[in-house]
Design brief:
- The complex is a heterotetramer.
- By secondary structure, chain B is mostly helical.
- Helix content of chain B is about 60%, strand content about 5%.
- Chain B folds into 2 domains: about 5-95, Helix Hairpins (Orthogonal Bundle); about 95-125, no CATH class.
- In chain B, strands 1-2 form a two-stranded antiparallel ribbon.
- Chain C is an all-alpha fold.
- Chain C has a domain at about 35-90.
- Chain C has 4 helices and no strands.
- In chain D, helix 4 runs parallel beside helix 8 and helix 5 (about 100-125) runs antiparallel to helix 6.
- Chain D is an all-alpha fold.
- Chain D has one domain (about 40-80, about 100-220).
- Classes of the chains: A mainly alpha, B mainly alpha, C mainly alpha, D mainly alpha.
- Chains in contact: A-B, A-D, B-C, B-D, C-D.
- Chains A and D meet through helix 1, strand 1, helix 4, helix 5 and helix 6 of A and helix 1, helix 2, helix 4 and helix 7 of D.
Chain lengths: ~500, ~120, ~90, ~230
């Protein structure tokens, strides 16, 4: 079994990109509302491929694939290291249950799919293809194209909600994304002008030697380029104070879309920030590591505060995303390993996975609740515990991971992060992490407390009457995501840390 | 100064003007123009800097062709969304966004509870 | 300064002026017109940069198709171009 | 106040960057000799086409995906607000007004010329400036002209046939990209067949790109939902 996995692995790099492109195109041809079964089957294959890739990377170190057979710097290289393999695994592991959820969510009436789901399948296919391509590419111009693919597909999905609010949110998102990728592109242009390459592997030593030699003009241009690229990506990552576009886009889209965007899409640009910051741009940016960290801390506090005061359920979940993304930036000044032997990037990856699974579950659960009540007010959650016990349990489980309670993946990530921060003497970071957990507890218990309220019998009867029932399969998929986020802390955490840190990887 | 460097410098100015326009302008069509000008600026920097020696470099030229296609794609999508927003609200500017975080006001108009119920509003 | 460089300097100046006009002129119709001119000047700049492929694409797409898209959108948003004045005021 | 801050920031940024660019030394690496070495096995004689469809063909593959995504987004945005779960509705009601006879005549005259010119530009791309994208842009322009002549109607949503045609070029590209995986890397053409494969990709792309580019316009031209 394992051997067959490893044999499959080198092909997994191109296939994880080609397969979703192919089924997205096919779903487009099939037409409005069609293609859900195709997408689910393909997502299952992709999940197997991602597992094979992760197993192979764990055993034998990073895998390479030279597109066109040229190799960098003339061609474009695909590289899967531990970090990329972990993110690919997250993407497929969230996509498969979410697709099954979306099928139930959009197709409740049987033959006639919901208008909001008409173009979900091809757009979701292109979105997944773009993210997979982003995680695998090591060519900064190719990454620009993948960023645009992800960005435009995400905007299309937000707009598919159909209402005026969604259109406005999609436009706001589009302009933020275009501004971000424009800044990134100018950075790429400057790096190409200064060094003559767009391959990260080729650029890394060139940038290092330029910034080492004092007074080199190339280093000055490279610094401006690095700042442009990172600023552009932070805009796309919705790091405070660039988060303005996220709550309306994630809070307004149909639930399966919100879940995809909050769990996966924002992670893609954050992954790229980390990859560049810890890779080729490290010599230029290391002195500035405190800046994103400061913004991350602000994001945790501000996002949680807004979530506590949100009036709409999905807006609450969206602001929770703003807060949880902040954690991913805390680790930048903590490069190196803590007392547990896990590196900062491994811990961040664990947090990204835990949040991805939990947030997908939470948006899915919120979608089911809103379907049942017909309204998106936090106050309308009242009494839901009796009607949707499984979904409420899902919401609570996802909340456990977001708050960072043991034994969840969120707990493991936050605990390791605190340990690392204390080992470096950065105790304010530890304090922010603890405060973030407490604030998360407030907004999550605010929902749970209401859900357990006892409504008068007559009201329950009336609510039942207008309830729109989401298929059981959708409820179970949301639960599976939440359970996975919790189980990640018990079983998945250590192998994941090893995967990212390359522990146990033999020399290739 | 070589001609190519001159174009690269013009590219920087165009980028700065375009970026400022995307941030500052109210009318959404103007923002689309600004975004296109910003993209053209980045493309000029890409080719201009690479060809400072005066010899054409096909690699950035091919990248710019890719960039132009992406820009057209983004322009088409932006215009479609702007027209939809106009059809739905009658507005074509990005004003009144402050209240939008609450999800109730969009483009200065008060809307019914957004169709977060995935377009289900019609039969509620 | 050679004649070629003088021409480049002139072209760059016109390019910047067209861009500024497209961004700042109060009337949207003129702004779109300036943008199409900007696209054509860009095509000329690509020729000067020995990039005829880009020049062709820019002329066809940057100035042509984008221009048509924008003018069509403008017509749809603001009614017929004739009653531009009242809407154009709101544009600012 | 905000305007002043943004303008100052933009001006300061431009001044800083231009200052840095003025004494930027020549790039450390030069890809031109590398590309020149690769040209004999690239399958084409024009370097830009070689980069676009061979050495960096993977970029182009994703770029076509971006265009398709934009088309999908436009389809989403032009769906009528009152759209019901009826995926069968395709064409918009025919346009009532008749076209300017001059425009009609012009369109009938120009279209065949545009097709011939597009084929030339496509074929020329192997040796000199030109190629699939430029040819597609010319065809798209012809389609838009035909729309103004009321010969091609605007669509609310593309029909099945149009969707197949719009995706066909991408599908051919995808298949040719995937085939070499049996023995090599993504998009690694055998040098002997490279020229032919690139021509096949470009021919498919020309038709599909023309439809997608024209689609961006024709879907938009059908005013979504009308003006309320």
């Amino acid at each position: 079994m394992t051997e067959r996995f490893v044999m499959l692995a080198p092909l997994a790099l191109p296939l994880l990109i080609l397969l979703p492109l192919a089924w997205a195109a096919l779903a487009f041809v099939l037409g409005a509302g069609r293609g859900s079964r195709l997408a689910i089957a393909a997502a299952a294959v992709q999940l197997v491929l991602a597992f094979a890739l992760a197993a192979a990377v764990m055993d034998g170190g990073p895998l390479h694939h030279a597109a066109g057979g040229w190799g960098a710097p003339l061609g474009i290289d695909l590289v899967a290291d531990g970090l990329a393999a972990a993110m690919l695994l997250l993407t497929q592991a969230v996509a498969l249950p979410l697709f099954i959820f979306a099928r139930g969510y959009f197709h409740q009436d049987g033959a006639h799919p919901d208008a909001a789901g008409h173009h979900f399948w091809p757009l979701a296919g292109f979105l997944v293809a773009g993210m997979n391509a982003l995680y695998l590419s090591e060519d900064i111009f190719n990454l620009y194209v993948t960023l645009e693919l992800v960005g435009l597909a995400a905007v299309g999905l937000v707009a598919s909600g159909g209402g005026a609010a969604q259109t406005a949110a999609a436009l706001r998102y589009l302009f933020a994304a275009l501004l971000g990728s424009g800044a990134y592109l100018l950075g790429v242009a400057l790096l190409y002008g200064a060094f003559g390459s767009v391959s990260m592997v080729t650029l890394t030593p060139l940038i290092a030697s330029a910034s080492a030699s004092a007074g080199a003009e190339a280093a000055e241009v490279a610094l401006i380029a690095a700042l442009l690229m990172v600023a552009g990506l932070l805009m796309k990552s919705a790091l405070f104070p660039f988060h303005f576009w996220l709550p309306p886009a994630h809070g307004g889209a149909p639930a399966p879309v919100s879940a995809l965007l909050s769990a996966l899409v924002v992670k893609a640009s954050i992954y790229l920030v980390l990859r560049l910051w810890l890779g080729p741009l490290a010599p230029l940016l290391t002195p500035l590591a405190w800046l994103p960290t400061l913004l991350g801390a602000a994001a945790i506090l501000w996002g949680s505060w807004q979530a506590i005061h949100a009036e709409r359920l999905k807006l609450l979940v969206a602001y929770s995303t703003v807060a949880q993304l902040g954690y991913l930036f805390l680790a930048l000044p903590l490069v190196g390993v803590g007392s547990t032997g896990a590196s900062a990037s491994a811990i961040v990856t664990l947090q990204a996975l835990a949040h991805g699974l939990a947030k997908a579950a939470m948006f899915a659960a919120a979608g089911i609740i809103i379907h049942a009540t017909g309204r998106d007010r936090v106050d309308d959650v009242a009494g839901i515990a009796e009607r949707l016990p499984l979904t409420l349990f899902t919401f609570a489980l996802a909340g456990v991971s977001l708050m960072g309670l043991p034994p969840s993946g969120g707990f493991l990530a936050k605990w390791l992060l605190i340990d690392l921060a204390m080992a470096r003497g950065h105790w304010p970071l530890a304090a922010v992490i603890l405060a973030g957990g407490l604030l998360a507890a407030i907004y999550i218990f605010r929902v749970l407390r209401l859900a357990f309220l006892n409504l008068p019998e007559a009201m329950i009867e009336a609510e039942h009457h207008k309830a729109r029932v989401v298929p059981r399969s959708a409820e179970w998929m949301a639960f599976a995501l939440a359970a996975a986020s919790v189980l990640l802390g018990l079983f998945g955490g250590l192998p994941l840390l090893q995967l990212v840190d390359g522990v146990g990887a033999g020399t290739p | 100064m070589s001609s190519a460097l001159l174009y690269a410098i013009a590219g920087v100015l165009l980028f700065a003007a375009g970026a400022a326009g995307v941030v500052m302008l109210d009318h959404l069509l103007r923002r689309v123009l600004a975004f296109n000008i910003m993209g053209s600026g980045a493309c000029l920097v890409l080719v201009g800097l690479a060809q400072r020696s005066g010899i054409p470099d096909p690699v950035p030229q091919a990248m710019v062709l890719t960039g132009i296609v992406v820009a057209v794609a983004a322009t088409g999508l932006a215009l479609a969304l702007i027209r939809r927003l106009h059809a739905q609200t009658g507005r074509v500017d990005g004003k009144g966004e402050e209240g939008r975080d609450k999800g109730e006001t969009v483009a200065g108009l008060t809307l019914p509870v957004p169709q977060a119920v995935a377009g289900q509003g019609r039969d509620d | 300064m050679s004649a070629a460089f003088a021409f480049d300097l002139l072209l760059v100046t016109l390019l910047l002026l067209a861009a500024l006009r497209a961004l700042t002129t109060p009337r949207l119709g003129q702004s779109l017109l300036a943008f199409v001119v900007f696209g054509l000047l860009m095509a000329l700049a690509w020729v000067r940069l020995d990039a005829p492929d880009i020049a062709l694409a820019e002329a066809a797409v940057g100035a042509g198709l984008s221009g048509v898209l924008l003018f069509d959108a403008w017509r749809a948003l603001c009614g017929e171009p004739a009653d531009e004045a009242p809407t154009a005021e709101r544009m600012r | 106040m905000k305007r002043l801050a943004v303008l100052t920031a933009a001006a300061a940024f431009a001044a800083l960057l231009i200052g840095a660019l003025l004494d930027l030394p020549a790039a450390t690496l030069d890809l031109r000799p590398l590309l020149a070495e690769a040209m004999p096995v690239s399958g084409v004689a024009h370097p830009v086409t070689a980069v676009l469809l061979n050495t960096r063909g993977y970029d182009t593959l994703l770029e076509i995906a971006v265009l398709l995504v934009a088309l999908l987004g436009v389809v989403v945005a032009s769906a009528r607000a009152d759209v019901t779960g009826d995926p069968g509705r395709t064409l918009a009601p025919p346009v009532a007004t008749s076209a300017d006879p001059m425009v009609s005549a012009l369109a009938r005259l120009v279209t065949p010329l545009a097709v011939i010119f597009a084929i030339y530009v496509l074929w020329a791309g192997a040796h000199r400036p030109g190629g699939a994208f430029q040819a597609a842009a010319i065809l798209a322009a012809a389609l838009v002209l035909l729309h103004f002549a009321r010969i091609v109607p605007a669509c609310a949503a593309p029909s099945r046939g149009l969707r197949i045609a719009a995706v066909a070029g991408f599908a051919i590209f995808l298949a040719i990209a995937a085939l070499p995986l049996a023995g090599g890397a993504l998009l690694q053409y055998p040098p002997a067949a490279a020229g032919l494969l690139i021509l096949a990709i470009e021919s498919g792309l020309t038709v599909s790109l023309a439809l997608v580019l024209a689609g961006l316009f024709l879907l938009l031209a059908d005013d979504p939902g009308g003006r309320r």
